[in-house]
Design brief:
The complex is a heterotrimer of chains A (122), B (480) and C (422). Chain A is of the alpha+beta class. Chain A has helices at residues 35-46, 79-87; strands at 2-6, 15-20, 26-30, 49-50, 53-59, 65-70, 74-75, 90-92, 100-102, 112-114. The model of chain A has no long low-confidence stretch (mean pLDDT 93). Chain B is 30% helix and 22% strand. Chain B has 12 helices and 22 strands. Chain C has 3 domains: 1-123 and 259-330, FAD/NAD(P)-binding domain; 125-257, FAD/NAD(P)-binding domain; 331-422, Sandwich (Immunoglobulin-like). Chain C has 8 helices and 28 strands. Chain C has helices at 16-27, 65-78, 142-152, 167-178, 197-204, 264-268, 306-325, 403-408, and strands at residues 5-12, 33-36, 52-54, 63-64, 82-84, 88-92, 97-102, 106-117, 121-123, 132-133, 139-141, 159-163, 182-188, 211-213, 215-221, 228-233, 246-249, 252-255, 259-261, 293-295, 334-339, 343-347, 350-352, 359-365, 369-378, 381-391, 397-401, 414-421. In chain C, strands 1, 2, 5, 6, 7, 8 and 20 form a 7-stranded mixed sheet that branches. In chain C, helix 3 packs across helix 4 (167-178) and helix 4 packs parallel to helix 5 (197-204). Chain C starts with a strand and ends with a strand. The mean pLDDT of chain C is 95. The chains are: A alpha+beta (122), B alpha+beta (480), C alpha/beta (422).
């Protein structure tokens, strides 16, 4: 079977043609510009993942929330569950870029990291 | 709560009337259904001070228009409201229409205008005044005494003056019913019961509904929607005068006029509507406006529109103003049917209402010794010289923080607008008083900052700040 | 504070463009530099663009907006570049006198040898669209909503329709969905999306949000808060097709209908403007028609990738440095660039044929073209030909004029880029 998909690994958005065998295993990928397209086709057909960016509540800073991201792409099915975990989290200023906000979220092995710094504000 | 006089409706009529009454030792309430003054007809109209040749001779409109326009410059000067006597042109597109110009000229004379305030121009003279006028224009009636004013700024200024002189402004105070007991009106309102010896009904499109509450069925308002486009300042000098079209059987056509703030207003359409509480514009409104405007000035383009809006005009079936003591109750004064030229007439209407009140008042009205006919002059950073700006910021740093970049409005001006005697309580209120959000980005950048300042100054959470009161919330709960 | 300050370079705007330009000027030996930023912090619009996708070209890694911004903020902080935030420039003169105000120093006047315009852009507002209905609350630009959610931490709506499928619209569809809102649809006037394909996949498809092409919003309903909208299909001339009107219940309409360079200051000094980009006309160093005044980033042309903003701004920074070191040395002889068939615009609009460096031309196509090529030519001579699977208006293209090619171009020649079938 041939499956068409758009690679989201980078903003280029290559149109991939992915050949699957009878066990849904990827046998061939065309249309990609770089090797990340092949990787993308494999994960998308087996365990699709997406990186997650959102905000987390912060206490004692100039702003009420700061932005965060997942350290790697999360399984797509965990996105909303991860959002609830992050929404229930509150961190204290100061925060630096890269600080771990949630360690190993939902046992995925992936951390949630701060992507902007915030100083303590009175 | 007891008052000598309750004025229902804080539009330009109610507010100027309140100011007039505040010269006397009277306890006056200015009662408003909305969250602010000038939040209906007075915020959305052409802003034109008509010369007075248009109204039918012998009508109240004719008399009060001519009188009001004469008084406008003085009222505006006293209240620090920009008024520009830029003159108007009624443009004719055929010899037949030139005849109509002559009729209008004659009517102007009959209505009491000075002969030398008007002039019929040929095409050459017209083009000299208005280089962008249509090649099809053959002549025009120039009327030198016509002008432009900002209708909501006039309303705010009058209300501020009234409040400074003791008038109480009650907002979100819709009137549900009125009883007359023991020589006293009892108004049942959204804010509880209010008693008043006299009522002035200046409720705009709702004035017939208010009159019915005391059994007066003489008024019949059929609201007319006028739709407008406001153009960017970059085309602010496309016309120099208020440009009317010669009225034809097809209708009045739309006007094109500069605004006191340097924009251009184009409109209105005229649509009879049923809903008195919605000034929603129709789907073909803008294209209709421009189609008609292009007859006068072909180069005007929809592309320069920064916003479009609708306003309801309180047109009475008689087509005239209805001003006077009600037959149902002498102590109830109707000031109804105030459609165009209501704004131009407003200073005269307020004076006329005062005369009526005096004629029916039990006893003499006693003048206050400390009446102040003016208000605190608002700071307008955008109009200042660099030297004035330097001094202003040195005195108060809040004037050094620019919130609205399109209109150059400072934090200091917004704080002033919120803390003034009739202060802004919502985003639109700040916008009308300061012009923050009135520019080309239409509050895209400053909207959240204005909300922050409102939240801080009024000490309420930011998600309780509304666009214009009621349920016009902007933000819901925190994301987390 | 009455004295006039003197700087070699004043950079107006502390977003990615302003910071990159200032840093590059510093690197090239400019002494006194000041960045004037109207927001409370450096970083510009990137601070609210918390999604990732920035920096792949420039840093070779995928960063979020704030991360990308902070790489530059740190460099600016480590340098001796002066920064004034919460500071609004209110005027510039042709003599490059910059007047600004803030609530710390008050009134500021700076005499600058060179000025870099990096004020960015603003979103097109509702007024520019012919949408009927009321002025109810709940209609705002996607960018304003993005600030409310990502910076202020408030929800601007719960049931949302987005008009415009540019990247901001798509990104906000996902963002609002993740925060618990119901995004009912994204409507797009054109028959194609203006956003990146990958954003359609991961912002809409992933969450089953329908993208309605050739569809627009014609009316807003509700007197106080928005209660719904009417959408309709449009024909190839973008006219509403009668009978396709449909009511959609919602409490919020987000507009993502285009960006406009903020050139009000540029217009004060009467520099030549390009009516297509709505930005200044510039040469290959991003110098405007007024010597000593440069422009870069979204004030010059609306970019889709911040990486290109950085590159462009570094050119402007270098240009300003060269100008400052020798303001009167100008041996430029110009040829002019012109968009041919299928090309809307090209930046720079003019190139110095005496340039000692190769020159990259950036351009945007007018429509979606499949299996086509772009051709750069002067007169009958073809300089460059490049094939591509797909050209789309949402993605900026570029072509490099080598020194060899520049030699073939004469003063006042027209360098034309066109799209051709292959």
């Amino acid at each position: 079977m041939i499956k068409e998909m758009i690679c989201v690994a980078c903003p280029l958005g290559c149109q991939l043609k992915v050949t699957l065998d009878e066990n849904d295993a990827v046998t061939n990928v065309t249309g990609n510009t770089c090797k990340r397209g092949v990787e993308y086709a494999h994960t998308e057909c087996t365990n699709p993942t997406r990186s997650l960016t959102t905000t987390v509540k912060v206490e004692g800073g100039r702003l009420p929330v700061i932005p965060v991201k997942s350290s790697a792409a999360l399984p797509k099915g965990l996105l909303f569950e991860s959002m609830s975990v992050i929404n229930d989290t509150c961190i204290k200023a100061p925060v630096k870029i890269g600080d771990v906000v949630v360690k190993n979220i939902l046992n995925s092995g992936i951390d949630i990291l701060a992507t902007a710094p915030i100083d303590v504000c009175n | 709560m007891f008052y000598d006089v309750a004025i229902i409706g804080a539009g330009v009529i109610g507010s100027l009337t309140a100011r007039n009454l505040s010269q006397y030792n009277l306890k006056v309430a200015l009662i408003e259904k909305g969250n602010d003054v000038a939040c209906a007809t007075s915020k959305a109209n052409s802003g034109i001070v008509h010369a007075g040749f248009d109204a039918k001779p012998g009508t109240l409109k004719a008399r009060l228009n001519v009188d009001g326009t004469k008084k406008m410059a003085d009222v505006c000067k006293t209240l620090f409201v920009p008024f520009k006597e830029i003159g108007s042109l009624v443009v004719a597109f055929s010899d037949y229409e030139v005849e109509t110009l002559r009729e209008l000229y004659q009517r102007g004379i009959t209505n009491g205008l000075d002969a030398d305030s008007m002039e019929i121009l040929d095409r050459q003279a017209l083009v000299k005044l208005e280089p962008n006028i249509s090649p099809d224009a053959v002549g025009a009636l120039l009327s030198k005494t016509a002008g432009i004013v900002c209708p909501y700024e006039l309303t705010v200024a009058a209300a501020e003056c009234a409040a400074t002189n003791g008038v109480e402004f009650l907002r979100n105070c819709g009137v549900n019913s009125i009883k007359f007991e023991n020589d006293m009106f009892i108004l049942s309102t959204e804010q509880g019961e209010i008693s008043a010896k006299y009522i002035i009904n200046a409720a705009g499109v709702h004035s017939d509904d208010i009159a019915k509450m005391i059994g007066d069925n003489s008024i019949n308002i059929t609201p007319r929607l006028g739709e407008y486009a406001l153009l960017d300042k970059s085309v602010g000098n496309v016309v120099n005068h208020v440009i009317f079209q010669c009225p034809t059987e097809m209708g009045k056509g739309v006007l094109i006029a500069p605004t006191v703030d340097g924009n251009v207003i184009v409109g209105p359409t005229t649509v009879e509507v049923d809903n008195k509480d919605s000034a929603a514009i129709a789907q073909d409104a803008l294209s209709n406006v421009f189609k008609s405007a292009n007859k006068s000035v072909p180069s005007i383009s929809m592309r320069n529109t920064i916003t479009s809006f609708g306003g309801l005009r309180a047109h009475d079936v008689t087509s005239d103003f209805i001003i006077g003591s009600s037959n149902a109750n002498k102590k109830f004064i109707n000031v109804a049917g105030i459609a165009s030229p209501g704004l131009a007439s407003s200073p005269a209407i307020a004076d006329y209402v005062l005369e009526i009140l005096k004629s029916i008042y039990d006893g003499e009205l006693e003048k206050k010794s400390d009446y102040n006919p003016s208000r605190t002059e608002p700071v307008k950073f955008r109009e200042m010289s660099d030297e004035q700006r330097r001094e202003l910021i040195a005195k108060n740093k809040a004037y050094g923080r620019i919130i609205c970049r399109c209109e150059t409005v400072t934090e200091g001006e917004i704080i002033d607008a919120i803390n003034s005697p009739v202060g802004a309580r919502d985003v639109d209120g700040v916008k009308r008083r300061t012009r923050a959000g009135m520019g080309r980005c239409q509050s895209g950048f400053c909207g959240s900052k204005v909300m922050e300042i409102l939240s801080r100054e009024l000490n309420v959470p930011i998600n309780e700040i509304t666009k214009f009161g009621g349920k016009s919330d902007i933000l819901y709960e925190r994301t987390k | 504070m009455n004295s006039t300050l003197k700087y070699d370079l004043v950079v107006i705007g502390g977003g990615p463009a302003g910071m990159a330009a200032a840093l590059e000027a510093k690197k090239n030996g400019v002494g006194k530099i000041i960045i004037l930023e109207r927001a409370e912090t450096l970083g510009g619009i990137l601070e609210q663009c918390i999604h990732t996708g920035f920096g792949l070209h420039y840093f070779g890694e995928e960063l979020s907006g704030p991360e990308y911004a902070h790489k530059f903020i740190e460099l600016v902080e480590q340098s001796d570049i002066d920064v004034k935030t919460d500071t609004m420039v209110i005027s510039i003169s042709k003599e490059r006198m910059v007047t600004a105000v803030n609530n710390q120093d008050g009134f500021i006047q700076i005499d600058a040898t060179a000025v870099i315009l990096a004020m960015g852009c603003r979103e097109r507002a509702r007024g520019a669209l012919d949408i009927a209905g009321s002025r109810a609350s709940g209609v705002m630009t996607a960018g304003a909503a993005q600030k409310f959610v990502n910076i202020d931490g408030y929800m601007p709506g719960k049931k949302i329709v987005i008009l415009g499928s540019g990247d901001i619209g798509l990104i906000m569809a996902r963002r609002m969905t993740l925060e618990g809102a119901q995004v009912k649809m994204v409507c797009e006037l054109m028959p194609y999306s203006g956003g990146l394909t990958r954003n359609i996949v991961q912002c809409l498809d992933d969450f089953d949000i329908p993208l309605k092409l050739s569809c627009t919003v014609i009316e807003v309903h509700g007197t106080e808060r928005v209660e719904g909208i009417t959408i309709a299909q449009v024909d190839e001339n973008r006219n509403v097709i009668d009978g396709t009107q449909e009511f959609v219940e919602c409490d919020t309409l987000l507009l993502s209908v285009g960006l406009i360079p903020e050139n009000e200051l540029s217009k004060q000094i009467d520099i030549d403007m390009d009516p297509i980009t709505s930005g200044p006309v510039v040469n290959e160093m991003r110098q405007t028609s007024l010597p000593g005044v440069f422009a870069c980033g979204n004030v010059l042309q609306v970019h889709d990738l911040v990486d290109y903003v950085t590159t462009e701004s570094q050119i402007a920074g270098l240009g300003a440095a060269k100008y400052i070191s020798n303001p009167n040395n100008d041996d430029s002889r110009y040829a002019f660039t012109k968009g041919g068939d299928g090309v809307r615009y090209i930046v720079p609009q003019k190139v110095n044929i005496n340039s000692k460096e190769e020159i990259k031309l950036y351009f945007r196509v007018a429509d979606v073209y499949l299996k086509s090529k772009f051709v750069v030519s002067v007169g009958d001579e073809v300089l460059i030909e490049k094939r591509k699977q797909k050209f789309a208006p949402g993605e900026m293209e570029n072509a490099t004029l080598t020194l060899e090619m520049l030699e073939k171009i004469k003063e006042n020649d027209e360098i034309v880029i066109s799209i051709k079938e292959r």
